[in-house]
Amino acid sequence: MLHLPRPPRPESAGENYLDLLHLAAKLTGANHAAFLPLDGPTGLLVNAADRAIPAIYWEAAQEVARNPLPLLFQSRGQRSFSPLLAVPVQHRNNLLGVMIIGGRPRRPLNRDDLNLVALLAENPSLVSTNLGQHDKSTIYLLESVQALVKTLEARDHYTGQHCNQVTEIALHFARDLGLSPEELESVKTAGYLHDIGKVGISDRLLLKQGPLTREERAIIETHPIIGEKIVRPLGLKPPAKEIILHHHERWDGRGYPQGLAGEEIPFLCRLVALADVFDALTNDRPYRRRFSLQDALKKIRAAAGTQFDPGLARHFVKLISSQTRNRVPLSVTQVKTSEKFTKSHPGLL
Q1: Alpha carbon distances (Å) from 156 to 151, 168, 300, 345
Q2: pTM for the complete prediction?
Q3: Cβ count within 10 A of residue 218
Q4: In what order do the strands lie in the sheet with 71-73?
């Protein structure tokens, strides 16, 4: 049974959230969906549905309202409930409410489902105001991308974990820099999909145990171009598409696929590049063992001004080092925003 609330007031700018709920439920195969809107005057979530909302839905929604990030929620006190997805719905930097998706006990909802629904919520252009006209093509596109992600994860388990971890690290860094909600949305969307182009690379190269030859590396380096082509029909925002295409560019111009240099590289691409390399260094790969956290940070510090934006690299090393000293978990749900970072001055720090 699909629980849907009454339509919101016309002036709420969220009148298409019913379409969003329907589409999210179809994509995940969930039995239940609800939207808990935020009441502007009080700042509290309210129940706009024509029936009671389970307490666990409220618990998940309130946690997301306090910290508006997508959440895979499992209440400690209610293990009889399968996991829920709680996803913030925002418009022009303002939280409109929280979408809850649940009720798939035989195949519990997981992080892949969360990423997919978050992608949907963060890119409203994917939701037609007339769902009946376009929902089949939209569902097909999103299901196709999800299938490609799962195929890639099945072939290379590291890549699946890597995409999630890069997203968390990059968001953590972006929030510390005080970036805007729109920039955070682009980082979330592109982080999940940044290596999707690797579906076009053969297992022989993707899982090779030893070093790559020059010819093999040239093939691997096509994956950002493949990835950008895969996501093109989704109508993602330009910054998200740029991250997928340019996250392997280098500050000194020796990166790929276009050899951009310095501030020619979009700012968010420079940011995600740091998270991408840091996660790669601190995980085992087929051809080498992982580096310690301190050794990984030394490598990033040494590459400031060649591979990485020097200002961003120093800020990143400082952030991770301070958290290590204070034993703060690297989790996007525990980040406090610092002063706004000046993007235009790479030597600021």
Answers
A1: 9, 19, 25, 38
A2: 0.67
A3: 11
A4: 44-45, 32-39, 94-102, 84-91, 71-73
Query: Which of 40, 318, 332, 27 lies closest to 172 in space, CA to CA?
Result: 332
Q: Which two tokens stand for residue 94?
A: 């303002």
* The pLDDT of residue 170: 94
Question: Could you state, in order of their start, the residue ranges of all structural domains in the chain?
Answer: 10-143, 156-334
Per-residue model confidence as pLDDT tens digits over 305-334 = 999 999 999 999 999 998 766 544 454 333
Amino acid identity at 6? R
Give the CATH architecture of domain 156-334.
Answer: Orthogonal Bundle (1.10)
Give me 121's structure tokens.
């919520």
Q: How many CB atoms lie within 10 A of CB 156?
A: 19
Cβ proximity of 309 and 270 under 8 Å: yes
**Whether residue 114 has pLDDT greater than 80:** yes
Structural fold of domain 10-143: Beta-Lactamase (3.30.450)
Task: Give the span between the Cα atoms of 296 and 302, in whole angstroms.
Answer: 10
Q: Cis ω on the peptide bond leading into residue 8 (within 30° of 0)?
A: no
As a dihedral over the C-alpha atoms of residue 20, residue 26, residue 27, residue 33, rounded to 10 degrees, the angle is: 60
